[in-house]
């Protein structure tokens, strides 16, 4: 079972709607070149990562914060000041922010392969009987 | 984790949990430490007066004036979990009307980073040494003890008594200075 078989019944409703996202971004690109306003640029910066990228980002920030916590605890214990422990953990937090908040290319290496967009009239009528067929099969 | 805000939320919550665990670790490393140090107290002069005390029910009460010397090294108490020490000198005695009296005569706050070696000479008491009645005159045994409250960064606040104390009798008459 995969996306290429046009079966989206297992996805959450909001993810199902993402099928139309390719159309939306093309329209936005046209807008940028013509108007060039700052607010449009901010709104249209894509911040998504694919699923493997999200898992990688979570592992990266958990690892960085845990390592900085261990280093900070040991350093604070040695020099007898708890303030340094807090500073080192805050530094780890800042590094993880830089590494995981923006959508770097390494988090987009496994994109989902969406089905190509079909024209509305023939696509919807052919999708509906197929979806109802698939539902009967699953039951 | 698909948007920046949801990643930021997850990252921040994880950092706070880790910080809470580190604070607990800081508390655990110093929770069972013995915070007593030897203290040397010496009283040089005691004077007694009998004055009107408007805070009590009777007309005149005993008022004591003590001049003392104090020396202690508080350095072993300070570690990474101690923010400050609250020291206080208290006098403890028994009278005919009350079996136990405790009066705080003097206190001091010692912050971390300040000079931890106490070497005070000829200190006067900060607070009035009033008695509940006339029990200070010719009292055989008044004990002065230096205690402290350890204020930590994380955890409990232990109340520790120093290991040195001094007991002394008070003079028999008023308005006379007794030197030791």
From TrEMBL, chain A:
Broad class of the protein's primary localization: endoplasmic reticulum
Source superkingdom: Eukaryota
Keyword Cell cycle set for record: no
Keyword Repeat: no
Swiss-Prot/TrEMBL keywords: Endoplasmic reticulum, Membrane, Transmembrane, Transmembrane helix
A Gene Ontology biological process term: signal peptide processing
Transmembrane feature ranges: 60-78, 84-104
Subcellular location: Endoplasmic reticulum membrane
Region (Disordered): 118-139
GO cellular component, one term: signal peptidase complex
Cited InterPro entries: Spc1/SPCS1
Membrane topology according to the record: Multi-pass membrane protein
Similarity comment: Belongs to the SPCS1 family.
Role description: Component of the signal peptidase complex (SPC) which catalyzes the cleavage of N-terminal signal sequences from nascent proteins as they are translocated into the lumen of the endoplasmic reticulum. Dispensable for SPC enzymatic activity.
Subunit annotation: Component of the signal peptidase complex paralog A (SPC-A) composed of a catalytic subunit SEC11A and three accessory subunits SPCS1, SPCS2 and SPCS3. Component of the signal peptidase complex paralog C (SPC-C) composed of a catalytic subunit SEC11C and three accessory subunits SPCS1, SPCS2 and SPCS3. Within the complex, interacts with SPCS2 and SPCS3. The complex induces a local thinning of the ER membrane which is used to measure the length of the signal peptide (SP) h-region of protein substrates. This ensures the selectivity of the complex towards h-regions shorter than 18-20 amino acids.
Protein name: Signal peptidase complex subunit 1
Organism annotation: Lates calcarifer (Barramundi)
Gene that this sequence comes from: SPCS1
From TrEMBL, chain B:
Residues spanning the signal sequence: none
Keywords in alphabetical order: Endoplasmic reticulum, Membrane, Signal-anchor, Transmembrane, Transmembrane helix
InterPro entries in the cross-refs: SPC3
The keyword Transmembrane appears for this protein: yes
Membrane topology: Single-pass type II membrane protein
Intracellular or extracellular location(s): Endoplasmic reticulum membrane
TM annotation in the entry: 12-32
Pfam family, one: SPC22
One of the record's GO cellular component terms: signal peptidase complex
PANTHER family: MICROSOMAL SIGNAL PEPTIDASE 23 KD SUBUNIT SPC22/23, SIGNAL PEPTIDASE COMPLEX SUBUNIT 3
Annotated family: Belongs to the SPCS3 family.
Protein name: Signal peptidase complex subunit 3
Organism: Lates calcarifer (Barramundi)
Upper taxonomic lineage: Eukaryota, Metazoa, Chordata, Craniata, Vertebrata
